[in-house]
Amino acid sequence: MNEEKDMADARAALVDYRASIDNIDAALIYMLAERFRCTKAVGELKASHGLPPADPAREQQQIARLRQLAKDAHLDPDFAEKFLNFVVREVIRHHEQIAASNGVAKTG
């Protein structure tokens, strides 16, 4: 009987954890949407002033900053860097599309 209670408790805990994970996933999606809204504005600003879509110096600063934040948060810095690199590649792709639609040549 104790084993059944342990299993029921484990299932209840699993439901609670999964509800929290679902909430976190939703927050991440909304945060990413807001980030991309801002980076779209940056891309439009860059394109309107003939600035290149990519900024390697800024990207390196951000990688170093996020690696330190990851360490402080007890998150694998390599994972954080991979995640940032994925996001930055997508941002640059968007900036290149914006630049192309404004007649600015692709650089990089």
TrEMBL record:
It is an enzyme of class 5 (isomerase). SMART domains: CM_2 (SM00830). PROSITE patterns: CHORISMATE_MUT_2 (PS51168). Signal peptide: none annotated. Residues 8-99 form the Chorismate mutase domain. It holds the Pfam family CM_2. One of its GO terms (biological process) is salicylic acid biosynthetic process. It comes from the Bacteria. One of its GO terms (molecular function) is chorismate mutase activity. Keywords: Isomerase. Its EC number is 5.4.99.5. NCBIfam families: CM_mono_cladeE, PRK09239.1. This is chorismate mutase. It comes from Mesorhizobium wenxiniae.
